[in-house]
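sorry for the late reply, my laptop died twice this morning and i had to redo everyting from scratch. anyway the thing you sent over, i finally got around to it. pasting the sequence first so we're on the same page, its 457 residues, then the predicted structure underneath. double check i copied it right bc i was rushing
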Amino acid sequence: MPHKTPHILVTDDERAIRNTLKEILEFEDYKVSTAESGQAALDFIKKESIDLMLLDIKMQRMDGLETLKNLREGGHEFPVIMISGHGTIEIAVEATKIGAYDFLEKPPDLNRLLLTVRNALSVQTLTKQVHQIKKKLPKIQEIIGESKAISRIKNMIDKVAPTQSRVLITGENGTGKELVATWIHEKSSRSTGPFVEVNCAAIPSELIESELFGHEKGAFTGANEQRIGKFEQANGGTLFLDEIGDMPLDAQAKVLRALQENKITKVGGNESISVDVRILAATNKNLEEEIDEGNFREDLFHRISVIPIHVPPLRERKEDIPLIAEACLNKLKESDISFSSVSFTSDGLTALKQREWTGNVRELQNAIERLGILSPTDTIDQEAINAVLKHRKSDSNSLQGLAEETDDFQDFKEAAERLFLVQQLEKHDWNISQTAEAVGIQRSHMYNKMKKYNIDR
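ok and here's the structure:
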């Protein structure tokens, strides 16, 4: 690919200055055009694209600051270097606020001029590369649904995202808690900063402090080099603590201290490191129950749950199931041509609504892909759904049936817990107090679990 010569527009109402700058820059092999006024510059860039502008501040009629303001309001992002024979700090500050790259005084020092131009063009090249990379990156999945529950969540995200408040996102496995956290980050002032996720349930308890705070070389056996922790990695951005209910108590104490002081200390280190991090947390557990049972710190709970957002299970928003199913299928079509002719019938979508989705959106997504591949025809109707997807009710009355039904360990644990509770309730003739006492949990916890698993007599 041939190298493109940068195109610079010199805008100044003094012909001698325009010609001098043009001569200097052309000697450096830049393509240079000139404009004698702010309006002439604005007219020029309507016809031709440029990579950088040198713009005089003191000009007749439209001055440089007004011209710069018009450029930025018009969406032009190329760097602008302001030049003036009457430079003051106030003018330089004002120009920077509007969006100037730098400020040079007349007559500009030759070396300073060329260095500033080179640096500005380098920034412009990097900016274009970032835009190109972003276009190629997959877009963040939308939160799909038109139910009242999902509308409330979307409204809450819009309200909460611009703030620095900590958010606790609750909900069953597969409901989309991570997606909510991602959108809070994307709609925040930290969206250009990092979004760092930690799955607290997937890290061994003896390693979680090192994962969060980093460690110094030699801090423990196997620490062969210094490690940067997730708090430092997320500096200036967002740290998402997923499954925080599974975090060990000793790690909880250190996280609480980090939130109170905005400082961390590496494992094996003595130096305090300042961090600027927004915390989002998520859990599928009832943290108030975990507090009662001594598994979660109450002071940390109050720190992370300034704004609570609950993501409902699919059974509480069944009207969204057809929309999610169609969106899943369209996503498959975008990535795999073999799905291009697959479609749902109306009775097929109705059949999906009527099924139990204990694994929520994640289970539904997997089912759509399975249907697209295994359906006897390209049209997914009720008959195809019954043929491809197992009937949960007939298969899930034993642990063996549950094990065959799901490949996800957490889904299996929750389904097994539900089965156990239903059998115990039936054994005690649905007397909730007796059942709670028999299985060794508090009655309030029993009610919570019945609500969680949609258990009715």
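DSSP finds 21 helices and 16 strands in the chain.
thats about all i looked at so far, will dig more tmrw
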